[in-house]
Design brief:
Elements: E1 2-7, H1 14-18, H2 33-42, E2 53-57, H3 60-73, E3 77-80, H4 93-105, H5 121-132, E4 140-145, H6 147-150, E5 164-168
Parallel strand pairs: 1-4, 2-3, 2-4
Antiparallel strand pairs: 1-5
Helix pairs in contact: 2-3
Pfam families: His_Phos_1 (PF00300)
Protein name: Phosphoglycerate mutase family protein
GO molecular function: phosphatase activity
Length: 171
């Protein structure tokens, strides 16, 4: 299956941080003004003309990005909760940064003595493939998701907001 990955636009966490939201509460953050502009500009990408369907993470920043693409292209939009952001099982920005460093340092594995628990690369890939199995009948699928999930399928270490990356994945 051809996957056209899109990383969501730039989010604005300010209001949620001011109210001390943590964990999945942070996933309620909408796009920033710049993120909305990125998403609107993204809609001009000619690759979307070859797609059959648009599938998005249920996380607000991804869903808002997908909304712009769906409106501009007419692609039917499906929301998939399993396309959520990479999971770190302890809350707090310090724990997230520690987990991210450990994840990268250990090439996606979780060592038994890890001070922070997180979702492994294998678990993320499995979650994605399980989710996408229901779209097997489609030749080309646009997927709006998150950097850590996308990195399990594309070699890019840095994936910018609203960056588009094509790849073939055996589903």
């Amino acid at each position: 299956m051809k996957i056209i990955f899109i990383r969501h636009g730039e989010p604005n966490y300010r209001e949620l941080e001011e109210r001390s939201y943590t964990g999945f509460g942070i996933d309620l953050a909408p796009l920033s003004e710049k993120g909305r502009q990125q998403a609107q500009e993204l809609c001009k990408n000619p690759l979307f003309g070859s797609a059959d369907i648009l599938v998005s993470s249920a996380v607000t920043r991804a869903l808002e990005t997908a909304f712009y693409v769906s409106c501009a292209t007419g692609l039917p939009l499906r929301v998939e909760p399993l396309l959520h952001e990479w999971q770190v099982y302890e809350t707090g920005i310090e724990n997230f940064e520690t987990a991210r460093c450990l994840f990268l340092e250990n090439k996606g594995e979780l060592l038994p003595n890890s001070p922070v628990q997180y979702e492994t690369a294998v678990e993320m890939k499995s979650r994605f493939l399980e989710c996408m199995a229901k779209y097997r009948k489609h030749q080309t699928v646009v997927v709006v998701a998150h950097r850590m999930l996308m990195r399990q399928f594309v070699p890019n270490e840095t994936i910018d907001f609203c960056q588009v990356i094509e790849c073939e994945i055996e589903i």
